[in-house]
């Protein structure tokens, strides 16, 4: 009788152990599914951002024009020199204010590949600024229109490449 | 690395808010509401949870009618969201 009872207990314990293993395994599976679902949701939201960033058509040309003014200001006589710098800076502030008052905005200096592009563009701007100042002081006046057109064109290219890089990053499969 | 999920971020609406704000510098209230597909009151409640935890930065601009509000993740919020993502990745990988 006792032997039968012991065998029954062992069977129950084995059944409970199997049941516990199944429960633990299904809990783990459920946790995994919830985590995968959460990661997919994060990925989906990251991708959805792309359609909400709208840049007006005039933004890049205006920025290019303002940068061109800031690059060649030194060629103008005083006090036009100061006036050009003031107009350039105020214009930049107004463009930035318009941009940051949209429903969504992303900084050009955000982390990622786009930051490298922004640093590269900033360095190119400085090269244009100081290069044109130096060459103009050496009597090479042709540098004024050349540097103005050059920084304008580079600003348009930078704007497009930045946006394309950012879109690719947002649409990438990793969640960040 | 431990797999501790952040209870403030874990609920689905707050997870979505953090996922959106982690990839933008600032996002306006109305756009967040439309993107989540919830009412103003539901979104306000979820944002308050995040704000109380110190995970949000809010910028309000006076406007005709209601002031417009922009939200972004604070440094603490970015850090907490990144840890939460790491924990989710660990759970997803451990159980395979």
Automatic annotation (TrEMBL), chain A:
UniProt keyword annotation of Transmembrane helix present: yes
Chain spans, region Disordered: 1-26
Keyword match Transmembrane: yes
Key words of the record: Membrane, Transmembrane, Transmembrane helix
Segments traversing the membrane: 55-72, 78-96, 117-136, 142-161
The protein's name in its UniProt record: Uncharacterized protein
From TrEMBL, chain B:
Record-linked InterPro entries: WH-like_DNA-bd_sf (IPR036388), WH_DNA-bd_dom (IPR027395), WH_DNA-bd_sf (IPR036390)
Pfam families, sorted: HTH_34
Gene3D superfamilies (alphabetical): Winged helix-like DNA-binding domain superfamily/Winged helix DNA-binding domain
Domain Winged helix DNA-binding: 14-89
Listed name of the protein: MarR family transcriptional regulator
Organism the protein comes from: Aliidiomarina haloalkalitolerans
């Amino acid at each position: 009788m006792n032997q039968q009872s012991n065998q029954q207990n062992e069977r129950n314990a084995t059944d409970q152990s199997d049941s516990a293993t199944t429960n633990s395994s299904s809990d783990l599976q459920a946790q995994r599914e919830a985590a995968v679902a959460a990661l997919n949701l994060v990925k989906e939201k990251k991708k959805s951002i792309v359609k909400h960033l709208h840049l007006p058509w005039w933004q890049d040309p205006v920025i290019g024009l303002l940068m061109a003014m800031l690059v060649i200001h030194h060629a103008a006589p005083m006090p036009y020199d100061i006036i050009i710098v003031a107009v350039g800076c105020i214009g930049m502030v107004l463009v930035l204010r318009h941009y940051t008052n949209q429903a969504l905005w992303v900084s050009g200096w955000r982390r990622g590949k786009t930051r490298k592009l922004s640093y590269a563009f900033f360095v190119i701007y400085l090269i244009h600024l100081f290069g044109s100042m130096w060459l103009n002081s050496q009597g090479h006046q042709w540098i004024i229109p050349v540097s103005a057109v050059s920084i304008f064109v580079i600003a348009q290219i930078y704007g497009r490449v930045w946006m394309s890089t950012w879109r690719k990053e947002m649409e990438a499969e990793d969640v960040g | 690395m431990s797999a501790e999920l952040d209870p403030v971020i874990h609920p689905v609406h707050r997870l979505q808010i953090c996922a959106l704000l982690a990839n933008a510098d600032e996002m306006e209230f109305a756009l967040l509401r439309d993107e989540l597909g919830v009412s103003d009151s539901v979104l306000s409640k979820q944002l308050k949870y995040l704000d109380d935890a110190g995970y949000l930065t809010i910028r309000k601009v006076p406007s005709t009618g209601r002031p417009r509000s922009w939200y972004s993740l604070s440094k603490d919020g970015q850090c907490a969201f990144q840890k939460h993502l790491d924990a989710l990745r660990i759970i997803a990988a451990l159980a395979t």
